[in-house]
Amino acid sequence: MNLALEIVDLQAGYEPGLLIVRGASLQIQKGEIFAILGPNGAGKSSLVKAVAGLVPIASGRNILDGRDITKTPAHQMVFNGLAFVPQTENVFVNLSVAENLELAASVMKANRRERVDPVYAMFPDLHRQRGLPAGQLSGGQRQMLAVARALIARPSLLILDEPSAGLSPKLVDQVFSKLREVRDSGVTVLLVEQNVKAALALADRAAVLVEGKERIVATSAALLADERIAALYLGRHTGRQPRKEPS
Amino acid sequence: MMPDFMGWLSYGSFFLVFASAYAIVVLGLNLQWGFTGLFNVGVAGFVAIGAYTSALLTTPETAGRLGGLGWPVAAGMLAAMGVAGLVGLFVGALALRLRQDYLAITTFGIAVTIQLVANNAKGLTGGPFGVQFIPKPMQAWLGTGLPWTIAYLLMTLALLAVVYIALEKLVKSPWGRVLRAIREDEDAAASLGKRCFKVRLQSFVIGSMVMGLGGAVYAHFVGYIAPEDFLPILTFQLWAMLIVGGSGNNRGAIAGAFLVWGFWTAAGGLLRGLVSQADQARAAPLQVVLIGVLIALMLVMRPRGLMGEAVAVSKVNKV
Amino acid sequence: MLQIIADGLIIGSVISLGAIGLSMTLSIVRFSNFSHGELLGWGAYLALTAATGLTSMNAGLAAPIGPFSFGWGLLAAGVVACGLTALLALALDTLLFKRLRKQGAITLVIASFGAALALRNLLLFWQGGVPQYYSQNLQIAIPLLPRSVWGGLRVTPDQLFVLTLTLVTVTGLHLFLRHSTLGRSMRATAINPGLARVTGIDPERVLRATWLIGGVLAAVAGVFAGITVQLRPTMGVELLLPLFAAVILGGIGSIWGAVLGGLIVGLAESASVSVVGAEYRAAAAFVVLIAILMVRPNGLFGEKR
Fold it and tell me: What's the fold here for domain A3-233?
């Protein structure tokens, strides 16, 4: 299987009658960085949350590395190799950095040293600040901690919901460069992003989600050169297929 | 056949007066909970305040106890509403800004404290013996028999109708619309800030006043009140009435009051019939257990009650 | 004056143990459980029944251990009561609260109020209204300080036992919550339930643990109340307001806050007896509650949520 994650015709939403994800299908290759873009309210967050088990799924399937995880409860995802980083409140603010990481390791019933040390190696700043309560970290460091916590689970797939939110461009660069490191270590990365430019600079491929369904799926290079993105991004999306641009 | 009919009429009138008095209280509770989403666990306390206030102001002078001003009943009832409203103001001002649980706990505390004061402050409330010889209105003209009971029933029903109409008008007014907007979207309401708090406080106070009125109506019917008339079980009966009838709906509130009171009386009668004389006292708690189970079943199976709205006011807690 | 403090600490120990369970329920299950007080009452009476049963099989179990008023029978019965009360708490959740979770916190509170009434009246029906005692052995207070020193200090061996064991229990619980995976998972769920789930923490397991631990602590508190005062079917509801006051004073979710809150409420009750008389001691908890709501609603150690 070359696919880290396959989403098949997924329909999901918080309330049964109000579907936010409306028949989305995606194929994420192993070892790639894949970005999900789209206007506000398109359902990007809900899509990845549904994959992670946090939003009820009405129909469709999610297949992680060949295994059907559609019915898997959220708390078992890490044991299947899927780690999710929420957009907000993504660290335990009352616990120290070390306690955040050690908790994740304990829950995996893993040796704490074995799990936490490699993560500290990847995030030396966190190691330095390991005694600090997570609530006292700066925005950028908090995001790093959120990612580090997810990596404790040694996931095969890391999903992030708008990792750049609330960060300055410099910090976004730092976080995204760390995500490149993560991918290079063998983890597939799937992220939802509002920051189109930064996302396309990072990702190999991307999909644009509109009204709960993917409209375009292409390589970043192709998308960067594409004016349709601008049209959709500026909010003139109607659901119609965009015109073919003159060659 | 005549004597039987009179007996039934008397019993029926008694039943209906109680049910109507409770219905008045439940309307107040409905305003607080059904329309504003405020959880008052100390309803019995507010009813007690109304009952005691009116009783103490209207009874003739009694040795060893405050009050006894001999006021007319109508004035007593108005005062009952006023004092109950003031206590509601105190509690609301304190707890409404805080999380919902805190209002519940605070109102619970009020009820416990009122119970305590009523039981122990002999100089104020007559202690465990309570207040006796509470004047019954219209007694001078009608005497003490069935005609008076029926007259009082009519008076109570009239009061109930007035309260119902007033509350319905209130809820449909612009003020009521603000209330509904607050209830429907608490986040947006939070941004309204001060206005939101003010409206909720007003709702809480009005609800408290109505509860006080119900208490006064009860006091002047029975003629004698004691602390044991206002135990937590009363709070629970009133909540049961609202839950069964359907919160957020004033007609449902009234219907619930009559239904649950009927169920309670029937359950009591049934138990008395089934259980021997010797075991009567021991079996009495079972009546409460029965109603506790009824409420639990209702909540699990039909949370909106008989006539309530489909969407209940609640914050969904995703654990 | 010292005596007031000592008495207050004894009362406070009972309140503390009950308040811990209540605080945990509030921070993890997220609703004010008005039936928690009844777990203390049921715990006390289950221990009484078990002790009576054990003693009827082996009369020697009733013989007081050393200077205490109770024998091994009661200690064994206490353990049994802990288990049964834990199961009772879990049963309440499974049968009632679990089904209502989707309806929100207030529905759960109403249901818990109803459950409290049902439980209390079942207890009344089962045991009758007359107060009972674990043993008829009278305790002689040991004078620790003469009356000339700050009014003197006398404690009974039973009271020392209660104080010591409360400390042991709380310390043990603290260690458990700090160092075990389940304990840390419970703490994480209290802080951020959604994040706890994605970290791999099973929410149902945490909930079950919360109810079980709350039940055990309540039973211990109930037995202690029975040892130091008496057993009454209404003991649960009488402790409910002090329990809530302690929880809010200490700050929801904080174990040590609940303990400190319990001790302070106990001291307030003890002090109020000498000032306004014993009838009004229940109002002391209410005064503490009002005070903390006015001054610092988050409590002393409330965890940020």
Answer: Rossmann fold (3.40.50)
